[in-house]
Specification:
The complex is a heterodimer of chains A (314) and B (334). Chain A is globular and about 55 Å long. By secondary structure, chain A is mainly α. Chain A is built from 16 helices and no strands. In chain B, helix 2 packs antiparallel against helix 11 and helix 5 packs antiparallel against helix 13. The longest helix of chain B has 32 residues. The radius of gyration of chain B is 23 Å and the shape is globular. The chains are: A mainly alpha (314), B alpha/beta (334). At the A-B interface, helix 6 and helix 10 of A face strand 1, helix 2, strand 2 and helix 11 of B.
Chain lengths: 314, 334
C-alpha cells in the first residue's frame, strides 16, 4: 500500500458528522452526504493532519458512516470508491503497521490483527470492484471467470481510480497474510489491474503504482515474478515521480529489499532519507509522510530484528 | 543519605545481573513469513520469553535472509547464527544419517514417521552433540507427491516425462537415471522458467509449495502416492545452549516440542486447503491404486538400495528399518 495514497483514503470526510446530523435519511440527503464523502478531496482534514492518534480514533466511525450511506444508495459508484479508499487507508495505517510492530510475546494478537487486516483489505477491494461493476456491468464476473485480460477490455481510462484501489487493496490483503493460498492464486488478477493503471497513466498518484510494485517485486518469490532488478527500477521511478516529497518509496525499499538482501547500510541510508522528507512540504501528504516516518523510526529502533551481524551487503 | 546510595547500588547490581543473564538466540530458517512453520517458531519465541521471564529471547530471521540451509549451518559453526530451523536437506549436511527417514516409500504416514523418529531421536541427538549442535525440537513438514504435466499413476507414466531432481549428489541422480527416469538438475530459482519453457515436465514436492509457488499451473496433475516425508529440526549450537540456565532448559524444550506436536495437524490441514484450492484452479488428482503403489515400491527400492552406505548412512538405515518393522508388526498397513 503506497503511503501517499493513504492520503486519498483518509480525505473527504470533513463535515460528515455535521451533515449526517442535519439531514434525514432520504435519498436526497444520502446523496448530499455521499457527495461530500466522495467528492474529490477538497476537504482534507484527515490527510493534512499530523496527529495520527486523532485520525486513528476518528476514522472507524467514518468508515461505518460510509457503509451506512452506501447501503442507502448502493448504485453510487463514487461512494463505493470513496469507501474502498477509506477502508484501505485505515487498514494499512492503523491495523497492519501496528500488527507488524507488536512485540514477540504477543504472537496471538499479531496473528489476529493480520487476519483482521486481510479481511478489511478485501472489504476495501470489494467496494472498489462494486463501484466498477456499477459503471461496467459484467466486469467482476469476467474477472473471476475469464481472467483479467477479458475483464479489462470492459474498462475505460476514466475507471482508473477503481482499478487502482481494487488492485492496491488486493495486494494489501496478500501482504497481511502472505501464505493464504486463496489469495496467492488470485495475485495475477491484482497485478493486472495495477499494470493497466500504469499503462494508462505511468505517473498516476505521483508514482503510487510504482511504490506498490517496489514491495511486490522485492518480496514475491521468483516464480511469482519477484525480481531485485525490477524492485529497484520501480523505486527509482517512484522517487522521480514523487520528486522526493514522499517518504513512502524509501520505507518500501528498506523494509523489503534491504532486509531481504541483508544490506544494513542501504537500510539505514534509505530510512534516513525517509526521515529527511519535509512533512509540511506537501500538506495533502502530511499524514502519510508522518505515518511512514513513524514506521521508519520504529524500524531503526528495532534494527536487530532485521539484520544479522556480520553479513552486511550479502 | 546512606539509604539512597544503597538503593542505587542495588539497582545497579540488578541492572548488571539482568544484562549478564539476558540471552538472545538468533535463529535462521527458510520458512516463509506467515507459513505454519514460521508461525510455529514465533509461538516458541513467545513461550520462551514468558517461561524465562524475558531473559531468553529467540530472534527469528525467516524467509532465507540468513542464507540457505548449508549457509545457516556454516554460520552456526562460526557463531554468526546461534540456531536454525532446518529441513532434512540441511540436517544431512551435518550428519548423513538424517536422510534415512526420507528414503522413498520407507515410512508411509505420520504415525510411522513419528514412531521411528521417536526411537531414533537419542541416536540422532548423540550424533548432533558430537558435532556441536543441540536439537530443541523435531518437527513434521508434510509429505511430498509427484506433480506432473501429464497424469502419473504407474512408474512408466513418469519415465516418459522430464523429472526435476533437486540434488547435488551425483550418486542419487545416477540412480534415478539407471532406473529409467529422465532427470534434469536445476537450481530451484530456475524452476518456473524451465517449467514454462518445457525443459521440465514433473517434480516431487509438497502441496503447500506447489500452491504457494504456483507450479501447479503447469504441472497440473498430482499423484496420490506419498513418496516421503518432509521433516526437520530446530538446532541450537551447544555453546549457546550451555548459556541457557540449566533449570530453564527442560522447560524451553518442552514448550518447543509442544508447538512442534501441534504442527502436524496444522500442516495436514494446510496441505488439504492447498489441494482444494489447486483443484478449483485446474489441478487433477490421479489416484494410485495398491497395484501401482507396489510397482513404485519395488522400483524405488531397487533404485535406492544401492545408495545405502553412500548417500544413505547404513547404520541409520538399518536402525530405521528395524524400528519400522517393529511398528508394522503391531500396526500392519491396510
Amino acid at each position: 500500500m503506497p503511503r501517499e495514497k493513504v492520503a486519498r483514503a483518509l480525505l473527504s470526510c470533513a463535515g460528515i458528522f455535521l451533515l449526517v446530523a442535519l439531514t434525514s435519511c432520504t435519498s436526497l440527503a444520502v446523496r448530499a452526504v455521499a457527495g461530500v464523502l466522495s467528492g474529490g478531496g477538497e476537504s482534507n482534514v484527515f490527510s493534512t493532519d499530523d496527529d495520527t492518534e486523532l485520525v486513528r480514533d476518528a476514522l472507524p466511525f467514518a468508515l461505518k458512516t460510509y457503509e451506512a450511506l452506501l447501503q442507502a444508495d448502493p448504485e453510487n459508484a463514487q461512494l463505493s470508491l470513496a469507501t474502498a479508499q477509506a477502508f484501505a487507508g485505515y487498514t494499512f495505517a492503523f491495523v497492519e503497521i501496528p500488527a507488524d510492530e507488536l512485540s514477540v510475546d504477543r504472537v496471538d494478537d499479531q496473528l489476529a490483527m493480520h487476519n483482521r487486516a486481510r479481511k478489511l483489505f478485501l472489504r476495501a477491494r470489494d467496494y472498489a470492484l462494486k463501484g466498477l461493476e456499477v459503471r461496467r456491468h459484467g466486469f467482476r464476473a469476467a474477472l473471476e471467470t475469464k481472467g483479467p485480460e477479458a475483464a479489462l477490455k470492459l474498462a475505460r481510462p476514466e475507471d482508473i481510480d477503481y482499478l487502482y484501489w481494487a488492485g492496491a487493496a488486493w495486494l494489501g490483503a496478500f501482504s497481511a497474510e502472505p501464505f493464504d493460498f486463496s489469495l496467492i492464486v488470485t495475485l495475477p488478477r491484482a497485478t493486472a489491474l495495477l499494470a493497466q493503471v500504469q499503462a494508462w497513466n505511468d505517473s498516476y498518484g505521483n508514482g503510487a503504482v510504482h511504490e506498490i510494485f517496489i514491495s511486490y517485486y522485492a518480496s514475491a518469490p521468483v516464480d511469482l515474478g519477484g525480481s531485485e532488478e525490477k524492485a529497484r527500477a520501480e523505486f527509482a521511478r517512484a522517487v522521480e515521480l514523487s520528486r522526493g516529497h514522499s517518504a513512502g518509496p524509501y520505507v518500501a525499499l528498506a523494509s523489503s529489499l534491504s532486509i531481504k538482501t541483508q544490506n544494513e547500510a542501504e537500510f539505514r541510508d534509505l530510512l534516513a532519507k525517509a526521515l529527511a522528507v519535509d512533512v509540511n512540504a506537501v500538506p495533502s501528504q502530511r499524514l502519510t509522510n508522518t505515518i511512514n516516518q513513524q514506521k521508519a523510526r520504529w524500524m531503526l529502533d528495532h534494527i536487530d530484528r532485521f539484520f544479522l551481524e556480520g553479513q552486511d551487503g550479502q | 543519605m546512606k539509604a539512597p546510595r544503597l538503593l542505587i547500588v542495588i539497582l545497579l547490581l540488578a541492572a548488571g545481573y539482568a544484562a549478564a543473564g539476558a540471552l538472545t538466540i538468533k535463529l535462521g530458517t527458510l520458512a516463509p513469513i506467515g507459513s505454519p512453520w514460521e508461525i510455529g517458531l514465533r509461538r516458541i519465541a513467545a513461550d520462551w520469553d514468558r517461561i524465562s521471564g524475558g531473559t531468553v529471547t529467540l530472534r527469528i530471521y525467516a524467509g532465507g535472509i540468513a542464507g540457505d540451509e548449508p549457509d545457516m549451518v556454516r554460520k552456526m559453526r562460526i557463531g554468526t547464527l546461534n540456531a536454525a530451523g532446518i529441513t532434512v536437506s540441511g540436517l544431512q549436511g551435518i550428519f548423513k544419517g538424517f536422510k534415512t527417514l526420507s528414503y522413498p516409500l520407507l515410512v508411509r504416514n505420520d504415525d510411522e514417521l513419528s514412531d521411528v523418529l521417536d526411537h531414533m531421536k537419542p541416536f540422532f541427538e548423540q550424533e548432533l552433540e558430537k558435532r556441536g549442535f543441540h536439537a530443541v525440537m523435531w518437527s513434521p513438514g508434510g509429505w511430498v507427491y509427484i506433480f506432473s504435466r501429464r497424469p502419473v499413476v504407474y512408474p512408466q507414466d513418469l519415465k516418459s516425462q522430464k523429472l526435476w531432481v533437486w540434488s547435488d549428489d551425483p550418486d542419487e541422480v545416477q540412480a534415478y537415471q539407471r532406473a529409467g527416469f529422465q532427470t534434469v538438475s536445476l537450481a530451484v530459482t530456475d524452476l518456473m522458467i524451465s517449467l514454462q519453457g518445457g525443459m521440465i515436465d514433473a517434480l516431487v514436492t509438497s502441496p503447500l509449495l506447489a500452491a504457494s509457488n504456483q507450479w501447479f499451473g503447469i504441472v497440473n496433475n498430482m499423484s496420490t502416492i506419498k513418496l516421503g516425508p518432509l521433516w526437520g529440526a530446530t538446532l541450537v549450537t551447544e555453546k549457546t545452549w550451555s548459556e541457557v540456565p540449566a533449570d530453564l532448559r527442560p522447560k524451553l524444550m518442552e514448550a518447543a516440542q509442544k508447538v512442534a506436536d501441534s504442527l502436524a495437524p496444522d500442516l495436514a490441514k494446510a496441505d488439504d486447503q492447498a489441494i482444494a484450492i489447486m483443484k478449483k484452479y485446474g489441478l487433477t488428482i490421479n489416484k494410485v491404486p495398491p497395484k501401482a503403489e507396489a510397482e513404485w515400491a519395488d522400483l524405488l527400492d531397487k533404485t535406492f538400495s544401492g545408495l545405502v552406505g553412500t548417500t544413505y548412512d547404513k547404520t541409520s538405515y538399518d536402525m530405521a528399518v528395524k524400528y519400522l518393522n517393529e511398528y508394522l508388526a503391531a500396526h500392519p498397513r491396510p
